[in-house]
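Co-fold these.
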Amino acid sequence: MKAFEWYNPTRIVLGTNSIAQLSKFLPKDSKVLMLYGGGSIKSNGVYESVMQALEGYSVDEFGGIEANPTYETLMKALEVIKSKNIDFLLAVGGGSVIDGTKFLSSAALYTGDNPWDILKKGIRTEVGMPFGTVLTLPATGSEMNSGAVITNKSTSEKLGMGGPGLFPQFSLLNPEVIKSLPKRQLQNGIVDAMTHVLEQYCTYPVGADLQDRIAESILKSLIYQAPKILHEPYDETVASNFMYCCTMALNGQIQKGVPTDWATHMIGHELTSKFDIDHARTLAIVMPQLYRFKFEAKKEKLAQLAERVFDITEGSTEVKATKAIEALEKFYDKIEMPHRLSDYTKGYEDIDQQVKSIFEARNWRGIGERKDINPDDVAKILRMTY
Amino acid sequence: MKAFEWYNPTRIVLGTNSIAQLSKFLPKDSKVLMLYGGGSIKSNGVYESVMQALEGYSVDEFGGIEANPTYETLMKALEVIKSKNIDFLLAVGGGSVIDGTKFLSSAALYTGDNPWDILKKGIRTEVGMPFGTVLTLPATGSEMNSGAVITNKSTSEKLGMGGPGLFPQFSLLNPEVIKSLPKRQLQNGIVDAMTHVLEQYCTYPVGADLQDRIAESILKSLIYQAPKILHEPYDETVASNFMYCCTMALNGQIQKGVPTDWATHMIGHELTSKFDIDHARTLAIVMPQLYRFKFEAKKEKLAQLAERVFDITEGSTEVKATKAIEALEKFYDKIEMPHRLSDYTKGYEDIDQQVKSIFEARNWRGIGERKDINPDDVAKILRMTY
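Predicted complex below.
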């Protein structure tokens, strides 16, 4: 196990009554800007619940934060923050709204000329404007971590940012939000959370026994909840477990003391960028093939995954590791998540060379837990996904 | 799963280099009081490491905090805090030193006449004097929670206290502290941490799938590390896993959304009080018999424990549950931890009636997850431990 530092001050409030408790966590004299996305919160009752909980507060609103939130949209919200003297941000939405709010938390207190520099120059946010979240879409884990990804449309860049100032002060998780989510988004949430765990787990063994077991716990719980979430009537306990799994998958805990990969995410981002394929679906396309390509380097952890998560106990390390990749694909099949690039798009034949060029242009010489997947390898992995 | 709120802002720094990083987390102009116990830190090198890391700070010392820290000793430390204008406390020790420091954190800012009222009247500490810890004995989990237990010698009371102001700001965990610990304390640490998990796990099922699996992860990891910790040469990875398990066993996470028991602890405390038996050993004496006594109420979770932790998969719920209790006792045997009251003391024959009277005098009508273990039941459980 590597040495590690673990710090996460976000308060998680999970339960059907969580939104009603909002005023317990929000200072009374706050000037609140409530941020949201495309307006689904107005049809599923969340908007009304939040507004009711905000009674007595000074509240402004900013809607229309898109999936893969853009710098251009967020700069309009920043104007509202400044003109209305906002001092507390409340994200009501999924990962995109929360990520956008993290950018605003940082940008609102940024003293430089150009807030895009926070991302472009990799400026760590030590202190941001305080914010909380009301989560409407379990998937990204953004509700309990300090990272965000923002897209600049004018420069075609999609960059990450973070820092200890970007933990939400609180996140309110009402399992009932599951009820109104379309199947497609639930499938995405399941695969997004699973992939988060695997990016932090499926590398090489370092003897981090407890972290491994907790990662396996989240995977087993997700696999157990998934068919219930997708095919059975709403159940509060199942929905609560699912939300909690998604949060735990990327709150930093299972990452402590272990190597992490994230190559699947880095390649997947380019498929979203080029073909507008949902983020989670790009992960299902890339991950199994990346695991086949890096089989030798990952086979020990893949075999452990087979044994402990998929109950595949027979055979050599290689046999079990191979079966783990197949079990992952069978799981995608079971939840009806297509996982070939050709299931989603046409005209992908030269995407391998396109993405290779992008990685080269960014000077990304190596990605993955050993930084040994080079742009040529990325092209090979992508050809395996066709 | 029950609704829950989870908040834990303590920063955990785990690794052989953790103590050297102290100044990263301690404000430069702090007036520090370093608190410790019987002086073992002066023979194992921890005192020197801490003093070196504190170079440049204003530092006073207070040693001599005893196991089961007493109000009487701590009131002397409080005088030092006041006379020296201390504004940061640094606990260097195990659970007793950390618990004592939590009391001081609260008492230093308490405006009432009598600091014992914090415990006697159950006053929640919203804000305490900031403090950090350097952990020298993995066991209690006090390094990452906001609770403490303090003994008042003059009134023979042992009471708990807590509140959001009592989370350590940071806890530095150097696995090398394991090297100098006597076997007895290592055994105690293993059983203390296991019992913490079981008090929060072995109740009745509420469908908290992820919490259950994480609790099982900690148990499996402890069972795996225990013989290595006790019988093999020092290994940094094993020691790190063991320390992390002890912290995770009582940092609040696995308690969220589930019922909790704690009856074993409440009965065990009286055995420590009457016979001066080590805290962890009283838990090994009480827990298996309490589980036999409450078999019907606990059998579902006991059977789950059997299946998932002890790999006992054959038989009915009752058979598996029975075997889980036996497996727990076999584990105590394996780590050479005696678990009958008669292994530790003589003159225990009327302890059942004595403890019954104590519980009655405190008006404790019922303990355990359903508050249905009455003083008569406590007497029966104790007779089973003879």
